[in-house]
Amino acid sequence: MNTKLLRLLEQDCTLTPEQLASMAGMSVEAVKAEIKKLEEDQIVLGYQAIVDWDRTDRESVTALIEVKVTPQRGAGFDRVAERIYQYDEVESVYLMSGSFDLTVIISGRTLREVAEFVGQRLATIEDVTGTATHFILKKYKEKHLIFQKQEQQARELIFA
Amino acid sequence: MNYESVLSDRIKAVKPSGIRKFFDILEEMKDAISLGVGEPDFVTPWHIRDAGIYSLEKGFTKYTSNAGMAELRREIASYMERRFQIRYDFASQIVVTVGGSEGIDLALRCLVNPGDEVIIPVPSFVCYGPLASMAGGTPVYVETKAENEFRLTPQELRAAITPKTKVLVLPFPNNPTGGIMGREDLEAIAEVLRGTDIMVVSDEIYAELTYGQRHVSIANLPDMYERTVVVNGFSKTYAMTGWRLGYLCGPAPLIQQMLKLHQFGIMSAPTTSQYAAIEAVRNGDGDIERMRDEYDGRRRYLVEGLRRIGLPCFEPKGAFYVFPDIRGTGLTSEDFCERFLMEEKVAVIAGNAFGESGEGFVRCCYATSMKEIAEALTRMDNFLTNLKKKQART
Fold first, then answer.
1. Running DSSP on this structure, what letter comes out for residue B147?
2. pTM of this prediction?
3. CA nearest B25 in A: which residue?
């Protein structure tokens, strides 16, 4: 499979089909058809902006929760994961190797909202045997993007 | 004091760069888009910067040996063999310089006697002629042609050779045209050189930035190794322009003399930069691919965009420049650049700044973000449309 288009999209999904076509050396029609197919096949799941909410006046907190689970016969961890990821509050769920089973990332407006979600929804799910909640204090980097404004060296005029 | 009378005749004869006036306008201008500056827009990859910082933390702040750290020269030797299949002995055939530019200066000064002719294909980077003159030589410019994709042809070379010819400068991949010379093109040049005493100074600073085919060094061709000094460096390959680090590779008897000059003029290349460079050559192959991929996407987009709005250009297969033909506009290169800057606030460089045969072309550097390239193309389209309207009225 040719991953050129995917790599370009992953880097910047605001590129137009015309730009993608030139960059990948494809026709505009081929790019459009390929993107349609990638979306239908759910290889491309969506397109989202990376937002630094801390620079707005909207309150939000994010927590990373280590979840221990009793795996189920026949379904392993998948059924429990499914019960967890259905919640809108849940941003991400990963199955982990190591001393716990699932990483769940959730965000809410306040600390209390998150704590309530963990206590009342998450921890009470059958087969969840334990949780450890870590609140995220500051985001530095996500998806290769750095949150703090980076100082850049101005380009000097040099005849090179 | 009459400074005119104290300055050397050689330096007075060197023409100042015509680009200064244009830069002065650009400097004053707010929010102009620049496709003018010829350097990578990437920051040096972190692991390389980190190696430089670490060397400072450890207090490695002394001179290195004149030729450069042995460890770095070993890595360069291994790199030249790994990437370009040319073997150099680290101990006698490599000298680390302050940028490729110092390397060119060393090579020319050690090869040229007063009155010797130095053949320089143009358009090309502006330093060769002045450096050849300062070495006492006479630059002989060979105008490469758009219809040959600005490659040097054996006919052009043969026509330029005289009994005084000492050096051929081979600036490929080329700044400003983006043209490259493939193995067959070089073989034709080598055929002209065989049996002569003409030396080659091959400026291969853009060697890693070729698209669709690997760069071939003329030193790789039969009988050429012994007459070629290869100039290379870290600036373009690893986005390390500000570190000022390059190197020369060539036959030991030549390199040893160049080292002598380097020793007196420079002592040794910056130590911090050398530590960073070791990390770059050792673990930076992935960075090269990543940056080249990124440039390649922009290159395709810019070439297609320029063609779409009516500026013909051949497909540049190297460096990070596109060299569109603006003769259809009826403007000279300089007029084009000045008006484009004043009307649309986009800077591109007049082709004749790189030699007379660059007249009728402009250099657009795509080492800048896709957003800026896209915006520059929109403005270029505007500029051309308005220009046509104005020309139709008069």
1. G
2. 0.91
3. A157
Q: Where are the beta strands (DSSP E) in B117-272?
A: 117-122, 138-143, 165-170, 199-203, 228-233, 246-249
Which of residues 14 through 33 in chain A touch B, CB cutoff 8 A? Answer: 15, 19, 22-25
First to last CA, chain B: 52
Q: What whole-number distance in Å separates Cα of residue B81 and Cα of residue B68?
A: 19
Q: Contacts of residue A17 in chain B, CB cutoff 8 Å?
A: none
- Asked whether the predicted pLDDT for residue B97 surpasses 80, the reply is yes
Average model confidence (pLDDT) for chain B?
96
Task: Order across the sheet with B228-233: list the strands.
Answer: B94-97, B246-249, B228-233, B199-203, B165-170, B117-122, B138-143
CA–CA dist B304, B308 (Å, integer): 6
Residue B27 · residue A158 · CB < 8 Å: no
Q: Tokens in use for B370? A: 């896709």
Token readout for A2 is 């040719």
CB B323 within 8 A of CB B243: no
Contacts of A154 in chain B (CB under 8 A): none
Q: What residues 134-153 of chain A have any CB closer than 8 A to a CB of chain B? A: 153
3-class secondary-structure state, position B34: strand
Test the A interface: residue of B24, B300, B366 with most A CBs within 10 Å: B300
Expressed in percent and rounded to 5, the helix, strand and coil fractions of chain B are 50, 15, 40
Choose among B370, B376, B368: nearest CA to B42.
Answer: B368
Q: What is the ipTM of this complex?
A: 0.78
Averaged pLDDT score across all residues of chain A: 92
- Which of B34, B36, B370 minimises the CB distance to A19? B370
Answer for the pair A137, A128: CB distance below 8 angstroms, yes or no: no
Distance (Å, whole) CA A154 – CA A152 = 6
With CB atoms and an 8 Å threshold, state whether A157 touches B37: yes
In 3D space, the residue among B257, B390, B248, B265 whose CA is nearest the CA of residue B329 turns out to be B390
pLDDT digits (tens, 9 = 90+) for B106-135: 999 999 999 999 999 999 999 999 999 999
**What does the pLDDT read at residue B23?**
85
* Residue A13 touches chain B, beta carbons under 8 Å: no
- pLDDT category at A114 given cuts 50, 70, 90 is very high
